[in-house]
Design brief:
By secondary structure, the chain is of the alpha/beta class. The protein is 39% helix and 14% strand.
């Protein structure tokens, strides 16, 4: 697929997906959604890619939906028989990724610009991100992108309710205080910091262990009984305990050298993966 509204670059085992409509502050369109879905599939299916970074071109991360022609009616949206919001299609695909996802929020992120980040594993923000907000009620619509599911799990129901019900704007520092971002850094340090975190994962961890751990973290958000988590963790732990990567992990520790893990997410996942029901849509 040729991309018009994003840039996809893969090097050093890191795929970087850049929202690329800088003249429109990277405003969101259905085309951008389709391209992001394709890029995530591409990264997830490429064993040479260990981590995915999202960022934006220019001075904004994403200013929200492109409203230049107003909101589009549901029956106008890509011929879908049942309307599904475009941000939710991206966050749900991201939710099922085998590869860790890092959000490098380089500037303002409003509406879909922030909801699309909620299923990223690590979010860091530039000091230039001065306007962030879940502004849907102020536009006469409601939250999307599965944000009413994920945001309370990230920052708590009380704070999530305040942000969504008021639709107010806040900056990166306040976002960090509430736990939405793990770090706030100067603008020129944002991508180097994101890549440093990505290389920490790529250089030191098993790709299969990381894929399983990522999905345990996300899928266990919905569990209400710790015994269910214990049983599933035990299945994953037992599978990896007998694996080549576990042998290599122990050997590299004993020999005081970097690990050389060989297992691949494309071919070496356990037969019980995925253990959840696949979503009823492609991607």
């Amino acid at each position: 697929m040729a991309y018009e509204q994003i840039i996809y670059e893969a090097r050093d085992r890191i795929a970087t997906i850049t929202l690329n409509r800088p003249e429109a502050l990277n405003a969101w369109t259905p085309v951008m959604m389709e391209e992001i879905l394709d890029a995530m599939n591409r990264a997830d299916n490429d064993d040479s890619v260990r981590v995915v970074i999202f960022t934006g071109a220019g001075r904004a991360y994403c200013a929200g939906a492109d409203l230049s022609s107003g909101f589009r009616k549901p029956d106008d949206l890509m011929g879908q028989p049942v309307f599904r919001d475009t941000a939710g299609q991206v966050t749900l695909r991201m939710f099922h990724m085998k590869k860790p996802v890092i959000g490098a929020v380089n500037g303002n992120a409003v509406g879909v610009g922030i909801t699309m980040t909620l299923t990223m594993d690590i979010r860091i923000a530039s000091e230039a991100a001065q306007k962030i907000g879940f502004v849907f009620n102020r536009r006469g619509v409601v939250p999307e992108g599965c944000s009413t599911f994920f945001l309370p799990r990230i920052i708590g129901i009380g704070k999530a309710s305040e942000l969504i019900l008021t639709g107010r704007l806040f900056d990166a520092w306040e976002g960090a205080e509430m736990g939405l971002f793990s770090q706030v850094v100067p603008a020129d340090e944002l991508l180097p910091r994101a890549r440093k975190i990505a290389l920490e994962i790529a250089d030191n961890t098993s790709a299969v262990s990381t894929a399983l751990a990522r999905q345990l973290l996300w899928k266990m958000l919905c569990e209400t009984e710790p015994m269910n988590t214990h049983i599933l963790e035990s299945k994953c732990f037992g599978y990896m305990l007998a694996s080549d990567d576990a042998k290599e992990g122990v050997a590299s520790f004993k020999e005081k050298r970097p690990p050389r893990f060989s297992m691949k997410p494309s071919s070496d996942m356990p037969d019980f993966y995925p253990w959840w029901d696949e979503p009823p849509f492609e991607g």
